[in-house]
Amino acid sequence: MTDWIHCNCCYARFRPNIKFYITSCGHIKCQVCVSKIKTDNCLICNSVCEIVQLSNNLKPNIQCYFRPAVESVDVAKQVCSFQLTNSLALLRNITAKYNNAKGEIQKAYKIIQDLKKEQQKLKMMLKASMRNGMGSSTPMIPTSVAGHSGSSNVNMTPISNNTSMNSFMQYELPSSSFMPWNNRGGNNARIAMPHRYPS
Fold first, then answer.
1. Which residue among 6, 16, 129, 186 is least enclosed by CB atoms within 10 Å?
2. In this structure, are residues 152 and 159 in contact, taking their beta carbons and an 8 Å threshold?
3. pTM of the model
């Protein structure tokens, strides 16, 4: 379809026996008008341009302007359909990965929240246990230590609430010669400690 091709200068219609040209600025000129050009400037827009003869040997980027518009639309439609199909496939894959990652993050977040609750619960239990232990525990003191064949038996007696802690702290231990870890005492060394403490 060439009925729309004409010279943009003299408006001569396209005929096979007349050469037509196209400039890089997008104007079509017939052979007669081109012969009148004395410079590299376009006769229409006066811009510096290159000129190429219309033929079947045009570059693809120029030929596309002379193909039927319907063909160009069909090609464009196919190109759009091809690109859209691939874009949607990629989008579905990305969406699936996103949903999977989102699910894993939600699971991890729930685990973290559960662990925080458990940690808080354990802290409260520990504090309560420490308070109860400090309020009910009674200090224990040794009442006798006897060594038999390298072993020792220790009897622990709790300090009553009426016993003065100052008296207990002021009590002096026996001489070091009676200590079980003193070699001079031998294997039969004994620690002689009174059963009663000064009040």
1. 16
2. no
3. 0.43
